Amino acid sequence: MASVKSARPVGRRKKYDPKVHPKKAQEYISAGNTQASIAHAFGISTSTFHDWVNKYPEFASALKTGTKIQENLLVNDLFLMAHGYDAPDGKYISKNLGAACFLLKNINPNDWRDRRDVVAEVSVEDKSKIDKLDEVLALLRDAG
Predict the structure, then answer these.
(1) Smallest Cα–Cα separation from 7: which of 35, 40, 53?
(2) What is the pTM for the complete model shown?
């Protein structure tokens, strides 16, 4: 994660620049920085940062785009971990079953989640058959 440095102390008011701040915010967030660290880099408080998100649509959009970039990078890394890969130093990084399971559960949760939701419907006709079966079982228990 790229570290961001502040030119000014946090809390000091800084004027929003639509030519600079959206681009920098997208760059910082896509590198994995938090909103708090970005606010610090801009020399503003986190409340001012959130004010900018609410007040300037291009700033909010840049953050969303940067977050999506970061998400895509993480998905790619997870995919590599799940399948195994050759590291830059020449070593082979073997497959990671946990990463593969996590990826499958998130790509297709209906088929790969741990818990299954089962819905059973019992009609009145089926209930009468169950009642008859209960009677037969009771008779067998009494007879045995």
Answers:
(1) 40
(2) 0.61
Rounded Cα gap, residues 99 and 61, in angstroms: 30
- Secondary structure of the chain in HEC code, one letter for each residue: CCCCCCCCCCCCCCCCCCCCHHHHHHHHHHCCCCHHHHHHHHCCCHHHHHHHHHHCHHHHHHHHHHHHHHHHHHHHHHHHHHHCEECCCCCEECCCHHHHHHHHHHHCHHHHCCCCCCCCCCCHHHHHHHHHHHHHHHHHHHHC
pLDDT score at 143: 82
- Do 111 and 101 contact (CB within 8 A), yes or no? no
Contacts of 69 (CB under 8 A, 6+ apart): 26, 30
- pLDDT at position 125 is 65
Q: Which two tokens stand for residue 72?
A: 């895509």
